[in-house]
Design brief:
Elements (H helix, E strand, L loop, with lengths): L5 E2 L14 E2 L2 H13 L4 E6 L6 H12 L3 E7 L1 H6 L8 H9 L6 E5 L5 H7 L4 E5 L14 E5 L7 H12 L1
Parallel strand pairs: 3-4, 3-6, 4-5, 6-7
Antiparallel strand pairs: 1-2
Length: about 170
């Protein structure tokens, strides 16, 4: 009898069919893969410059990732920061490298302008858009595309505070 396509969990040395052979026909493989696709991954996105990366950023990214199965970070490009008149200590490539080292982050895309958020949500199949609560209410217009969540900030730490400390220390 010919062997069916399957997953072999062990072979007998004499070539006979082992008792613990698991046979999976092509039809059941197809059905299983479709069931997996139907249970879509819950995708979360957040945006930021993530310059002077600190503990508060890590907590925000961790909490954002806990809201789904996949976290995309839209990282502000150097040109977008220039448009916002925002000076960064680190360039885009360096900030991207920092984020790539964080296990909570699954994907990083560039943020080039304020208007791209709607397109990002659709293009990347986003279910949850999240930002720090210092942006509360600013992105509610996205709620027709996905859930919008504002996460509370970490007390007593911010990029602005860190930059102030460095500025004072340099003087």
């Amino acid at each position: 009898m010919p062997w069916q396509a399957g997953v072999r969990t062990g072979d007998q040395r004499d070539g006979t069919r082992p008792a613990n052979l698991v046979t999976i026909g092509l039809q059941s493989c197809y059905k299983t893969s479709n069931q997996f696709r139907e249970r879509a991954m819950k995708k979360v996105i957040t945006y930021g410059t993530f310059d002077t990366l600190h503990y508060g950023h890590l907590l925000l990214l961790k909490r954002a990732r806990e809201m789904g199965d996949h976290l995309t970070v839209a990282l502000s490009s150097d040109s977008f920061n220039a448009k916002k008149e925002k000076a960064s200590h680190f360039d885009y490539a360096q900030r991207r490298e920092f984020l790539e080292a964080i296990t909570y982050v699954d994907a990083i895309i560039p943020e080039h302008d304020w208007e791209q958020k709607r397109d990002d949500i659709v293009t990347h199949g986003i279910d949850v858009f999240t930002m720090g609560d210092d942006w509360s209410g600013q992105f509610d217009f996205l709620s027709d595309l996905c859930e919008v969540v504002y996460l509370s900030r970490t007390p007593r730490i911010s990029t602005t505070a860190i930059k102030q400390i460095h500025k004072v220390a340099a003087e």
